[in-house]
Amino acid sequence: MSGLAVTWFILVAVLLTGYFLLDGFDLGIGVLYPFLGRGEQSKAVLRRAIGPVWDGNEVWLLTAGGALFAAFPAAYATSFSGFYLAIMLVLFGLIVRAVSLEFRAHDPKLRGVWDATFFVGSLLPALLFGVAIGNVVAGIPLNDNGDYTGTFFGLLTPFALCCGVLGLVHMLTQGASWAAVKAPREGADDLRDRAASLRRLLLVVELVVFLLVTCLFFVTVVPTSTVGLGVTALGVVFAVVYALGWVMAMLRKTSDPTDDIYAFIGVELSAVGLVGILAATMFPNLIVCSTDAALSITVANAASGDATLAAMAVIAGIGVPLVLIYHVISYRIFRGRLAKEDLTY
How far apart are CA 94 and CA 286, in angstroms? Predict the structure, then answer.
């Protein structure tokens, strides 16, 4: 296993973390949209809260997919073919979500339809991403060519579904936190107060689901794992990061608007912990084979040649800082709470 291959494992994890941090609250607001958006003004606040940034946030998913394709083509082939229907549903959701945001502004007669498709388009990715991760961790049946030999419904195991629920609930927590940060302190159907209260409720629900997933991991996954999954020192570190983020968010007062940004930072910190736990648990595996450890796709047997990885490292060294600069500029321009004159998206 080369050092470049390990480096790219870390970089792919970083890219996925970036996507989870940024598009997580986009998807969360989309799922919460019918519930937090009680009136036209509060709905406008929710749309405008993500309108200027959602397309830039999705760049991290595209970049992670491209990095996986170039750095670990075998893992890319297995995941994108084995989870084909699930991935198509995710893409369908992302496309519908974008279309809904644009069409709603120009088709007032069908606003209800576009609101519904915005909700569905956000729900599908938020749920299915976690289900896919649950299957990657628990393992899927593979043949000698690395092809998935199961069915779509074979992916819907209790552990995978619970992982999907965990991912969904965390994105809802991110969405409620971001809505509280961006909503006006007063008005907009009391959106800020409702979002802050929901944030605390979702944090409790998330902790319960996290503990359930942890129990299922040790009861159903670890004893049957072909690659010996278990606790790692780095996994414990990221579990502590998750706990610190959760506590930081939970301790913030829902009655104090100045606490909203710190609660959001805590929720995002816990997202880093979740992805870190996943990466630490999986390494050096990329996709676990549930029937034969020798057929599992790992960093060692799936990596491209060192020349390819080195060239990609140069490109990433140029591209990733540029993307970060773009995000800093974008979020700086659109920082602060929204006012009535901002509700045009």
Answer: 25
Question: Strand pairing of 285-287 and 297-298?
Answer: antiparallel
Dihedrals phi, psi of 19, to nearest 5 degrees: -65, -45
**Span 173-219, pLDDT tens digits:** 999 999 999 998 877 778 999 999 999 999 999 999 999 999 999 99
Contact 168, 28 (CB under 8 A): no
Q: What are the backbone angles phi and psi of residue 207, rounded to the nearest 5°?
A: -60, -40
Sequence-ordered list of residues with C-beta below 8 angstroms from that of 287, at least 6 positions apart, any chain: 75, 78, 79, 136, 140, 142, 296, 297
- The secondary element (H helix, E strand) that includes residue 15 is helix 3-36
Residue keyed to tokens 């996994």: 235
Nearest CA among 19, 139, 137 for reference residue 67? 19
* Exposure on the CB side of residue 286, measured as CA atoms within 13 A: 27
Instruction: Please give the distance of CA 97 from its chain centroid, rounded to a whole number.
Output: 16
User: Helices (DSSP H) in 251-304: which residue ranges?
Assistant: 260-282, 299-302
Q: Which residues contact 27 (CB under 8 A, 6 or more apart)?
A: 122, 125, 126, 171, 175
pTM over 0.90: yes
Question: Which region holds residue 287: left if phi is over 0, alpha if psi is between -120 and 50, else beta?
Answer: beta
Query: pLDDT digit string (tens) for 271-313?
Result: 999 999 999 999 999 999 998 889 999 999 889 988 999 999 9
Question: Which helix H or strand E contains 286, and what residues bound it?
Answer: strand 285-287
